[in-house]
Amino acid sequence: MLFYLYERNLDFYKACERVRDKYKGVYLSVSETTRLAINTPAESFYLLPKECMKIINKAINHETINLKHESKIELHKEIGRRYFQLSEENPELKPYEIAKIISDQDAPRFYISEKTAKEIYYKMIKEVRVK
Question: Which among 29, 6, 4 has a CA at the least distance from the CA of 16?
Answer without folding.
Answer: 29
